[in-house]
Amino acid sequence: MSKIKVVLIVTGFPTDDNPSHGVFNKRAADLLSEYVDLSVIQLRVLRPGKRILTLVEEFPYRHYTLSAPFLPHKPFFICKHLSLYKKFGNNRLNSLLLHTNIFHSVGASFAGILGSLWAENYRKRNIVQLIGTDVNSELKELLNLKCVKALKEFTYGVGANTNDLKEKFEELLGVKENIKVVYRGIDVSNYKYSFPDGSKVRFLFLGGIPDYKHVESGRNLKGGLTLMESWKSIEKELSVKGCELTFAGPDSDSQDVIQWKETLKHPANVHLKGILTPQEVLQELNNSHVLLIPSLEEGMPNVALEGGATGKCIIASRVGGLPELIDNNENGVLINPGSAEELGNCLVSFAGNIELIKEMGIKIREKIKKDFNVSNFVPGYLNIYENAMKMPIRS
User: Fold this and answer.
1) 27-35 contact pairs (CB < 8 A, 24+)
2) N or C end of the chain, less CB within 10 A?
3) Orientation angle between helical segments 340-351 and 224-240, nearest 10 degrees
4) What is the DSSP letter of 328?
5) Same domain for 123 and 198?
6) Could you tell me if residue 49 is inside a domain?
7) Three-point CA angle 297, 285, 191, nearest 5°
């Protein structure tokens, strides 16, 4: 029996210069390729000297990069930008698009719209995977655009990374049929439990201060600016207890952060790391006690699952799917997003309670094993594919 043919459309996928970019998309592709005939189309910006279409590899699945000229990520340009990707794909990947059964688009606000446009053009079915920012920030600003109508009309199934995203998407687009919560999950067996020796607490933040111009919260999307304000206000109490902070992620070693560190009274307690490889992320997790996720918006951040799988206690904002993972004051702590004061109080409280940190870390690891196992990911999407294939093609 032949496998169902699926084209996975992504905007992020690991590259040599950024091996952590879209790593969860690669993990999903690796898993899905064992059960379906998979091709990956990675959407990229066309740079001088780069080809529009490149076949990156053929095994274990075909991985293409499809590049189009840069246009600002603003509503006015979205449909034009998508029309370029659609046209280039039609011209260069016509046979692949014509013979696929399912488009699986990761992210509703760009890849999801493109998948729907191709589904309309080739009379196929598009499945959208909701991830976080797409629903939380971007999609609501695009609903009146002509090209976005295809998202509603030619989406045959939806996999949401959290129940929060599912409910928001249903409200925004009115889509109710074949929409399910499918956590990306994690293979806990790949993550060794770790708890560093000593009584001095090491805090870890991996979100950085990325320059997201297309979202309202901008550089504070991951809560980096909130953390910087909070740490400065309480560094005296934390220094007395020997606490340290590792501050990593996009632009975490930028001039703005370096200057902030120079204003601290105890700068030696803060370590700026920049962008980390997946292996370096794991190393930092193993060397830390508490993972900080003070984001203003989230889906179900991969770092929360990875951190919890290594037994890290998590302090996180009460946003997105984080309350689905964290039982407040049981296996972690939830705080209000953007509250530097609340975050600071929590850091000070944890600074002198290493046993509570350890207890919470053990509990969240057990919850991830039970409820967020990656083994549920593929069956979840295969079920969505199966339901979609039973639906009549829309015209």
Assistant:
1) 27/184, 27/374, 28/106, 28/184, 28/377, 29/61, 29/63, 30/60, 31/374, 31/377, 31/378, 32/6, 32/8, 32/104, 32/378, 32/381, 33/60, 33/61, 34/378, 35/3, 35/378, 35/382
2) N
3) 30
4) B
5) no
6) yes
7) 100
Q: How many domains does the chain have?
A: 2
Question: Kind of pairing, strands 332-335 and 125-130?
Answer: unpaired
Q: Of 211, 260, 254, 209, which Cα lies nearest the Cα of 231?
A: 260
Statement to judge: residues 224 and 348 lie in one domain? yes
Only one residue has tokens 């076949």, namely: 55
Per the listing, tokens 């797409």 go with 134
**Beta-carbon contacts of residue 111 (< 8 Å; ≥ 6 apart):** 9, 10, 11, 43, 105
Structure tokens at 72: 């600002």
Kind of pairing between the strands at 332-335 and 270-274: unpaired
User: Is there a contact between 202 and 196 (Cβ–Cβ < 8 Å)?
Assistant: yes
Report CA-CA distances (Å) from 209 to 218, 229, 240, 304.
8, 13, 27, 17
| pLDDT for residue 1 | 64
Q: Is residue 312 one of the residues assigned to a domain?
A: yes
**pTM value?**
0.86
Q: Does residue 335 fall inside a structural domain? A: yes
SS3 label, residue 253: coil
Query: Which tokens in the block code for residue 62?
Result: 């075909």
> Which residues, 6+ apart, have CB-to-CB distance to 247 below 8 Å?
205, 208, 224, 227, 257, 270, 271, 272, 273
User: Which structural domain range is residue 290 located in?
Assistant: 188-371
Dihedrals φ, ψ of 22, to 5°?
65, 30
Q: Where are the alpha helices (DSSP H) in the chain?
A: 23-32, 75-92, 94-99, 111-122, 133, 149-153, 163-173, 224-240, 255-262, 278-286, 302-309, 322-325, 340-351, 354-371, 377-389
Output the CA–CA distances (angstroms, integers) from residue 233 to 229, 277, 289, 333, 343, in the order listed: 6, 31, 21, 20, 11
SS3 call for 319: coil
Q: Please, what are the averages of pLDDT over each run of 10 residues along the chain (395 residues)?
A: 93 85 92 97 95 95 96 89 97 98 97 98 97 90 92 96 95 93 92 92 96 80 97 96 96 96 97 93 96 95 95 97 96 97 96 95 96 93 98 91
Question: Given this model, what pLDDT does residue 72 score?
Answer: 86
For residue 31, what is the domain's CATH number? 3.40.50.2000
